[in-house]
Amino acid sequence: MEKRLILAFALSFLIMIIWSYLYVPRQEQDISSKEGTQEEAKDSIPETITTQATTVLAPPVTETETVIVTMPQSEEKEILIDTPLYSAVFSNKGAAIKGFRLKRYNVTKEPDSPAIELVNLNDDKDFFWIDFGNTSTSEDKKDFYSVSEESITLAEGSAPKNLTFRCLRSDGVAVDQTFRFYPDRYDIDILIEILNNSESQFEGNIWACLKNLPSQKKKFSYSFTGAALLLNDELNEIKPKKMKEDKLLSGRIGWVAYEDDYFISAVIPEDQKEGSFTGRLSSSGIIEAIYVAPSTIVRPLEKVSSGFTLYMGPRDLEILKKTGKKLDQAINFGFWDIIAKPLHFLLRYFNRFAHNYGVSIIILTVLIKIIFWPLSHKSFKSMKEMQKLQPLMAKIREKYKGDREQMQRELMGLYKTYKVNPMGGCLPILIQIPVFFALYRILANSIELRHATFMLWITDLSAPDRLLNFSFSIPFMSPPYGIPVLTLLMGASMFIQQKMSPAPGDPAQAKVMMYLPIIFIVMFINLPSGLVLYWLTNNILSIMQQYYLLKRTT
To answer: pLDDT tens, 367-425?
Structure first.
């Protein structure tokens, strides 16, 4: 490959890094379009629990209608939920979730690493709650509920179980919240029922609130953390810095969520019609994502109900698809989405047979190289022709070294005479830039590649490769500190490629090219090892291809 083209790629690489860092997700929409009558919601909770919004006349609610364990109405109690997939902590104050631990995902690869805790809040605040009223209920004004169970445990293959919260409010409104848990699913069905026992009508909204504190990220982490919603079938991702003032959106809301790198917590209304969203960032850094349903009028002795689904789990494409309600649209790779999604599909497909994502990355790299073979072959021919013109180009540079404009005109005339395209070698490199960044987004956001092992010391393809651990820091390297073996091998492969390529005619350019492998080592030293593996494999295949083509032409 012509060496100055590698330099062009290096500059393009840096530009793309800056672009990806500054890239802003698609603009949030502010649409408030009134629609007709509400559609009936799907029935996702069997037997006595229905998610269809209903309005029925009913006698006044009494505490003997449902078996409820009455708890002191001024003391907060915790209700523990344990399933094969997660353990959750509910509170009788506001029927809120205070903790949610995923059993199958650990914080690190260490054997004694604790399970991932999705709730990251200080001051003992609540992560999720639903309420009915005129305004969003503040933390210290939540009502105390009676509960149907003191704890729930689900084993593999067991039937789902319900947990019902009941509150008899001072304004005559009774609120029941029923949560249905499944042993093999991350989603939880929710039914909220409002019964007006007073003699006057009551108007209010159902509020659903998600709150969390973002984890600290590295400066050049391109993965998204913040509030998200599906508004009018379009994904809107709102970064924390966009919520310093309340972010208000309205329209047809499919779901509202809090997202980070690999996990998502989303509330999904069964009646996906008109609604509003509020996103805000508190002074303590806590993100709030609030869904507000359309206003509901509850007449005396009238009962209304509404259904929701709460998903708290991994951002796994297959699991999100099974959950439904277009929650799989939460997996978005930003600017490179159109390229990243096919690559993501291929990686998952190859892994069905390889059972190793490192091997799957190598297979994907080989496939990409095969697809680009015609372009690479054309590029090689262009470079060979340019090499033949080097003596003539050197004479022109020497003759017109004091007049750069005339020099360029003469060089362009030379290219035209011999029908050579000086940029002929650039195309294969430029095409691979989107592939490179798309793969980076996959590694930074795909739960399948989190803690995915390759071989030997590479135990996490989504993290930088490090052999051994050093107690001292290394320039340009982020912790943990160690030997970046894969990155050094990648730099060595670039050096071999340079030695096999025609020498540039410009001495200054040759000097710059000499340092390019070192520059790339510094740029790649903190990137995911899966990405370095892709680039190293691509370099090795390019060396083999170049050797083959050189043998054919000699």
So the answer is: 988 888 877 777 777 777 777 777 787 787 777 777 778 888 887 887 778 777 666 55
Distance CA 311, CA 500 (A): 54
Return the biggest CA–CA distance within the chain: 103
Are residues 348 and 327 part of one domain?
no
Q: Is position 26 within any domain? A: no
Question: What pLDDT, on the 0 to 100 scale, is given for residue 519?
Answer: 85
pLDDT tens across 529-543, in order? 888 998 899 889 888
- Give residue 490's domain range: 3-15+341-382+424-553
Burial 371-388 (b: 16+ CB within 10 A, else e): ebeebbeebbebbebbee
Total of domains in the chain: 2
pTM of the model: 0.77
Yes or no: say if 446 and 439 are a contact pair by the CB < 8 Å rule. no
pLDDT of residue 25: 41
The SS3 of residue 72 is: coil
CA dist 477 and 342 (Å) reads: 32
Q: How far is CA 256 from the centre of its chain?
A: 15
Are 326 and 458 members of one domain?
A: no
